[in-house]
Amino acid sequence: MLSPDLPDAIDKLTDAYAGIVGIDNFALSCESIQIVPIPDQPDWLSEVATEFKQLDAAADAWQQDRGEIWSPVILAFQDYFSIFSGVAKTLDPSASNDVDLWINVLSETLLPQANKSLAATQGAEKELEQRMSAFSAVLPEMDKSIADGWNALANEEQQMLQLTEQLGELVNTVQGLGSKITSDAIASDKGIAQSAVTMLYAAGAAGAQASIPIVGLVIAVISIGKSFYDMIEDDNQLIATMNQINAIKGQLSNEALGLALTKSTLQTLYSIEEQYLALRDALPGLVDLWVTQQSKIEDAIDALKAGAQPNQYLDLMTLPQAFIAWQSINTFVAQLLKTDITVGQPVTIDISQAQIRPTFPTLAGN
Fold it and tell me: CA-CA distance, 6 to 4, in Å (whole number)?
């Protein structure tokens, strides 16, 4: 049949969209991190500050180029459906058994558009890999910079490890409470919201009053049909974890605390990165989809040239069924375009106060 498997195509499109949103979330976290100058700044911190600036620049570039990457992927489906529907509505192999006519239609109409859709998706895949590499190249360098400071504070290593583990557990719990983007969610009328969740390590201070280089970071969490704040405001597990973190913080020197918080921030970035890297096969999957469509059309042309009759060739006889499949895919693509991920109510998880609150309480009350 001259169409992809419908559930498989929907899954590939959903994964690709979720991957794009995942990179959006990662970029938001990168842009949220600021290094605060502190007295007697350790050597490792200046390198980390430079590397955070590189992440911020990569995030800015992603925000600017995102549309140029995702739009061609969507247009590839819309443009192909437009051409395919014209063929399916005007030609019927049971009524028109003209071999030359079908060869011409397949060669001059469907195949060129399949080639264009494939090329557009391959171009988007290449651009996406470049943007992802800009992020991924920085994280290992930052890891090395932090390791230098970590080794110098070996006497506090156990407490630092405990702190990073607890902070990691807190972040994982918060992320786990969020929703996942699914094809059902896209097809439904339920609102999809992206909430900026500030993980506040401590109250911010600068200059002589500063004691830690990073006061927190922002992670983006998806919620569907419900405010994320409403989902977590009374979460006792989160509060208990924050109390454990504060107990460990009190055992660390300022330098060890700053180092552990910086290390935890890096680990959080790795965690967010893993989420979208898990979906890095999404665009290659769509490339494979178009390669398969291209091959099916070429096979049909070759078969007709070899003597097959249109009214006996299965992929042409099932053109009406293929049209229905493409119609369903096009409907889902239209739903993807309409999917409006709204800005959800921002939430602050204030670790030092073991408190969960709206970031802007006056707005929350309105």
Answer: 6
CB 343 within 8 A of CB 192: no
The low-confidence residues of the chain, meaning pLDDT below 70, are 189, 203-211, 278-279, 340, 362-366
What pLDDT is recorded for position 207? 42
16, amino acid identity: A
Residue 203: per-residue pLDDT: 56
Would you say how long the chain is, in residues? 366
Spell 214-240 as b/e; 16+ CB within 10 A means b.
bbbbbbbbbbbeebbbebbeeeeebee
Contact (Cβ atoms closer than 8 angstroms) between residue 267 and residue 164: yes
CATH number for the domain running over 6-357? 1.20.1170.10
Distances (CA, A) of 200 to 173, 216, 219, 348: 15, 4, 11, 7
- Cα–Cα distance list, 251 to 97, 204, 242, 255, 261 (Å): 84, 20, 15, 12, 14
pTM of the model: 0.87
Q: Give tens-digit pLDDT for 96-125.
A: 889 999 999 999 999 999 999 999 999 999
Domains of the chain, residue spans: 6-357
